Amino acid sequence: MPNLTLNFRPETLGAGTPVSIYLPDEIVEDMPVLYLLHGMHGDHMSWLNGSAIGRYARALGIAVIMPSVGNSFYCNMKYGGRYHDYVAIELPEYIGKLLPFITKKREKTFIAGLSMGGYGAVKLALRNPERFCACASLSGALDMNVDVKAGDPGWHTIVTSIWGEDYETALPGSEDDVIHLLKTFPEDKPKPRIYAACGTSDFLYQQNQTFRRAIADTEFEFKYEEGPGAHTWAFWDKWIVPALKFLTEEINK
Q1: Ranges assigned E (strand) in the chain
Q2: Count of CB atoms situated within 10 Å of the CB of 222
Q3: Could you read off the pLDDT of 119-151 as tens digits, one per residue?
């Protein structure tokens, strides 16, 4: 499977940024694609270094696009780049021009991630349901209304750069609040299928339970799984396999 690393300058960011791309050995037209998101303090190489994603993707015949977004939480930052717009709009458009054999069909376009990236995957799918047909979160920070109020001075710097000095009131009920997005999802939009998994010893376990309760009151197709494990690559490498199965099951029928 070819492994490519690109560097380009998105208008949404105003600076050069790397992207890793994994392609199956056999290139076919209308190839399914997965946008795979890293967690805090990660980058475009995180999944390649921490997991066997290449082997899993090869078995499914899908392309994997792995962007680098810093600690932006995939948001349009108050003091920084427009990372939501980058991953949701500009990056897919760039990939479509660069690699025209990759699908442009919603039903073959997926998004997944771990921790910060799990939050990002769910948020991006809920805000861009015309592009992403399904999403998966592993150990996702799925209740940022809790996370945003906690942490050390370094954490305060991160959330301030994203939502501003009034971050505790700016996030709840906004387009970056995934539980709010669930409850206010437009009736005339196609609903993305959603998968979530979390280790029972993960410090984000309770946030995942909050998300489970919130989505239970909706009509989204949702699958949740859990098992022994913490916030580690051992858990993510194991659970990305059933996540990929869930994401691609409709095209593999």
Answers
A1: 3-8, 17-22, 33-37, 63-67, 109-114, 134-138, 193-199, 222-227
A2: 16
A3: 999 999 999 999 999 999 999 999 998 877 766
